[in-house]
Specification:
179 residues; 4-stranded mixed β-sheet; 16% strand
Length: 179
């Protein structure tokens, strides 16, 4: 039997994203990363810097957390060679690591290399956080009920990949409502 310590805290990750979205005044999708970052800086005092970098074809992104006397500085770099949907998800994923406390380990620096295929509970949590932040379940359910019932259209509306949208639809048991 697997220990609870080794299981991803999916509800916690989703609720952390929902808390941020509740604090913000949201319009229709897509959820803007720059709006989220501005909110986290202004309302929560988190210092965040985001950069484009060339990681080649393989690397998605990197996060460095540097403790300072005034709080942590968060530095995120994403792969400039990837599609904008992937870039958005990478930044949201790295924000999730930070906000879920994955980066507060008592070290002077924390470094996260986005490892999408990992079964690590922290990676799963960061992915769930990112998915909820960019595709809020409440807005997705409204869109589906209002007649948007195909994944390509939904993914374009939310500025996410079709794969990310399919995962969200599957996670929330909405497949029967999709054409």
């Amino acid at each position: 039997m697997e220990s609870d310590l080794n299981k991803p805290r999916i509800a916690l990750a989703r609720n952390a994203a929902r808390d941020i979205l509740k604090e913000m005044i949201l319009g229709n999708p897509p959820i803007q990363i720059k709006t989220i970052v501005a909110h986290l800086k202004n309302k929560r005092g988190i210092q965040i810097e985001i950069f484009k970098k060339d990681f080649g074809k393989g690397g998605r992104g990197i996060q460095i957390t540097e403790p300072t006397p005034k709080g942590d500085n968060l530095i995120i770099a994403y792969n400039k060679n990837h599609h904008v949907h992937s870039q958005r998800f990478t930044v949201a994923h790295e924000l999730g690591h930070f906000l879920l406390g994955h980066t507060r380990n008592g070290h002077d620096h924390y470094l996260d290399l986005f490892d999408e295929g990992s079964g690590d509970p922290k990676e799963i949590e960061a992915n769930q956080f990112a998915a909820e932040l960019l595709i809020p379940a409440t807005l997705l359910k409204i869109d589906i009920e209002n007649g948007i019932r195909d994944v390509p259209t939904l993914s374009k509306k939310y500025w996410v990949s079709e794969l990310a949208m399919w995962r969200k639809v599957l996670d929330f048991n909405l497949v029967k409502k999709i054409n």
